[in-house]
């Protein structure tokens, strides 16, 4: 393999490898994908096959009465290989969200409520969460959500108390329910709910292709210049 090809692969790998939060967004930020694991009762006990993937896109920052409003779309894919239901998403952010005036909407089985508070499975308090239902907790799911193998999409409108140009997501979390998981065959007390956290955040595939083309173009130009020298 040529030195140019090896360099392209090395540079591409460093640019596009999955990273963990914090993740910054601003007006017009490109889409990105968050991959989540699943665990119970805490992060040291990962459940095989319990995963989710969320694509965040179309970020619009607006000045509303002297404070920033952030709107974005997101699509939740429950790509678990075991029976499960994604019943909520949790976030830590900077600045903090005004939970009482923020909204989230989607289909009938999707999230319709923005809350804050304690997240289960040793995660603790989160700045805000999306759930389905009228409760004021981040632990419930209203009996609905995204079943394994399904994908649903929605829109969030986050309200804040100040003007800013960059929103930082410090953490991403997911809530699973409707499990029937046994770590050992024939257990008498199966796990019925779990949580998960981000294991990677990466640009959306089409963005990776676009950036890859740009990287290869720059490297090719440099290679031609060195060859001609």
Description of the structure:
There is one protein chain. The protein has helices spanning 3-16, 205-228; strands at 23-26, 32-36, 52-64, 67-77, 85-94, 103-106, 113-119, 124-131, 146-147, 151-159, 166-177, 194-203. With 229 residues, the chain is of the alpha+beta class. The protein has one domain (19-204). Strands 1, 2, 3, 4, 5, 6, 7, 8, 9, 10, 11 and 12 form a twelve-stranded antiparallel β-sheet that branches. Strand 7 and strand 8 form a beta hairpin. It starts with a helix and ends with a helix.
Summarize the structure.
This protein is an alpha+beta fold and 229 residues long. It has helices at 3-16, 205-228; strands spanning 23-26, 32-36, 52-64, 67-77, 85-94, 103-106, 113-119, 124-131, 146-147, 151-159, 166-177, 194-203.
Categorize the overall geometry.
globular
Strand content: 35-45%
Cα end-to-end separation: 22 Å
| Structure classification | alpha+beta
What are the segments in which pLDDT stays under 50 over at least 5 consecutive residues? Answer: 1-17, 206-221
Whole-number count of domains: 1
Element-by-element helix/strand order:
HEEEEEEEEEEEEH
Compute the CA-based radius of gyration. 20 Å
Strand elements, count: 12
As a percent range, the share of helical residues equals 10-25%
The DSSP helix count reads 2
Helices and strands in order:
Blueprint: H1 3-16, E1 23-26, E2 32-36, E3 52-64, E4 67-77, E5 85-94, E6 103-106, E7 113-119, E8 124-131, E9 146-147, E10 151-159, E11 166-177, E12 194-203, H2 205-228
Antiparallel strand pairs: 1-11, 2-3, 2-12, 3-4, 4-10, 5-8, 5-9, 5-11, 6-10, 7-8, 11-12
Helix pairs in contact: 1-2
